[in-house]
Amino acid sequence: MVCPMDDQWEGCKLVVLARKVSGEEATRATALSMNGSALYPAAWYEKQGIECSVNINAERDKWTDWYVEGGKIGQSIQNAVATDLTIQVERTGPVIEESPLEIVSRIVTDQSAGISNRETIKALAIATASELKYSYANGVRTPSVSGRTSTDSVREIVSEVLNETVVFNGEVCWTPVFLCSSGNTNDAKELVEGEFPYLISVESPYDSRDRNSGYYSQTEYSTTMFQSRIEGVYNIRLSEDKENWIKITETTKEGYATKVLVDGQIEVDGYEFFVETLALPSANVTVALNNSTFRFTIYGTGYGLGMSIVGAKYYASLDGMSYTEILEHYYPGTTVQVTNWETYITDNRGA
Fold first, then answer.
1. Which end of the chain is more exposed for a tag (fewer CB within 10 A), N or C?
2. Which domain holds residue 174?
3. Which residues partner with 335 through β-bridges?
């Protein structure tokens, strides 16, 4: 092999040393011992001002799989991000500014608590990155996010797919994520304004498999506590007719309340009423009044729109789905492509 001279590194992304092995030799062990692993030229990163964010051992295994088994080559070289690039988000009040890798890793560490499957975590990372890119592309300078201190294991997995993006007709997608559905996800047409043809109702049957993951729950409110909460939030006085206090007047086809009539006085958004006001896990609710107690039976956790974390977990662990297959299931008609963060934030920093 001839090593490029210093002025020949421009455009170089990958150097691979390999020799052909016979069929008898074609095993993981011989491929590794008789061929060099994928080599990432440090000079290329230095010239581009980019920090290598891939796990070299993981990439070596990917190239071995490709060489021996004819699998797909990873795109991790394209997931490097300029070292001085930062993005801004709002997390529980204050605005924080950190690298895309750190921000996405914080969010995914929060989302993936208790999940170790790499394909699930990759799917969450790409959905998170895509939603951030969508926000920046649509003029939101500091999108509001959740998150916690990132872990090394999550950060390493996120780094492998950091620049991969969910795309529909050439445009970055809005890719909401929630914990657990009631069996099917919602159609965006029933919940939000705008055109999102890739946010339609899809099956998520594994969500009901693990009842400890947010599929089913019950909560009770005394009528006194309920009255105090509702009158305080909506500035109304409830009548003596407790049976009339809660009337679900509209739901999605999957059963999530979209409109609630409160004591015949005001009609409010279903998610606002059940989740934000009453602090229930979702708006897929049935209500029963027994004497002086309201009992709420709830299915699912979250808005029910986009990708179910529980569903993604089991699609990967039980069905063996790859992260791209998981994303393409929950966002039908989309593809996963490599795009640069700079494309979405350059014109969104403001003065």
1. C
2. 85-182+305-345
3. 167
